[in-house]
Amino acid sequence: xxxxxxxxxxxxxxxxxxxxxxxxxxxxxxxxxxxxxxxxxxxxxxxxxxxxxxxxxxxxxxxxxxxxxxxxxxxxxxxxxxxxxxxxxxxxxxxxxxxxxxxxxxxxxxxxxxxxxxxxxxxxxxxxxxxxxxxxxxxxxxxxxxxxxxxxxxxxxxxxxxxxxxxxxxxxxxxxxxxxxxxxxxxxxxxxxxxxxxxxxxxxxxxxxxxxxxxxxxxxxxxxxxxxxxxxxxxxxxxxxxxxxxxxxxxxxxxxxxxxxxxxxxxxxxxx
Length: 272
Prior knowledge:
Blueprint: H1 2-19, H2 25-41, H3 44-61, H4 66-71, H5 83-102, H6 106-129, E1 137-138, E2 152-153, H7 155-175, H8 188-212, E3 216-218, E4 225-226, E5 230-231, E6 234-235, E7 237-240, H9 247-271
Antiparallel strand pairs: 1-2, 3-4, 3-7, 5-6
């Protein structure tokens, strides 16, 4: 029965996102598979937290104006999320969910909260920060950089990451008090704090990785620094980073950082 409910819910939500232009065909298929497996191996809590990230991020991605659209021209991926982005944002969460199904322990849930808080915080920071009226600053040296530059952060983006992480912390805390997710040792206010901090630090880790390890190219036509191998119809020149460290892999790695941060926060809180 779980397969049916999970598949139906995933098809409904992912289908609506595809119709609204938030998902590509590959993204649609991956989202349905991911959501279904999350519901089957986890519960409404795991599935609901994932869907909360997905819906909120999809809504924010549509709040564009000319400045944000121009900034996205250099991104490796556009507003329509593909299979790679779906996997980068939800793949680690699914592995944690499966781990909990095999060996049930509250620690899996705490790690999951940190991971989902990070991907939500990072997405909110990107979407809301991209609409800022001022240019972001490099996380490395604080200098002004063009909108859309990997490693660029803004005040509004940082605030958005805190709110996004806290949102996941609150939602996961509410979910953890119902059904078979009654982990009374982790109160809702604590999870809100954990979500905010792990989301913020995970998002900042994403920015740092984007400014250092992520592969970047320079367009040979317009001279713009971009994440794409091809720009303006021509092959771009690699100027920094590791070729294997794409934006999707940066997102996945930073989500791991957020999960570890959340777990460390739990360990610290238990010693106080």
